[in-house]
Design a protein that fits this description.
Elements (H helix, E strand, L loop, with lengths): L2 H19 L6 H29 L3 H25 L15 H17 L1 H20 L5 H18 L7 E7 L4 E7 L2
Antiparallel strand pairs: 1-2
Helix pairs in contact: 1-2, 1-5, 2-3, 2-4, 2-5, 3-4, 3-6, 4-5, 4-6, 5-6
Length: 187
Amino acid sequence: MSRTARLLLTGVTGVLLCSSLGAGPVHAQAYQDKVTEAGDWIQIILPAGAFVTTLVLKDWQGSKEFLLGGGINIVAVHGIKELSGVGRPDESTYNSFPSGHTAAAFYGSAFIHRRYGWKYAAPLYFAAMYVGYSRVYANRHWADDVFAGAVFGMVGNWYFTTPYGNRVTVAPVLGRDSYGLSVEFSF
């Protein structure tokens, strides 16, 4: 992944988190609104950023895998929401389980992790956790809704996404008095 793409992914995540946390003193409802709004935006930006990364890198196989896994994730999460009938904490509807916002955020993070590696995904997972926090804080989801959304976002992704490039390197080792093979795994 290019330095520009890494900086873009890390920078967008940092700006979003800082903008929601550094608002200064506000009334409780205004703060809750800011947390909710930040969660709403991050749950869109994480998967969108993951898809844009595949386009910037001209990783067409990654684009296909992202769309296939993402489509199945959306259908599964929203199908279960309709079938579960779990009421929201604010009693507004009966489609609380699992959290779609959290599933989307973790899907974007897990895609980057699986496709491009842990070092690019670490800050994105924190942003995804913030989305889950925002859903509970806004009284829209129970903690188990958020946990299930995170599991859906990650598990489906790990099934449909293959690592980008060669993730296992095997090289000959020729020493002065020895020889063999070196096997290196990159995560």
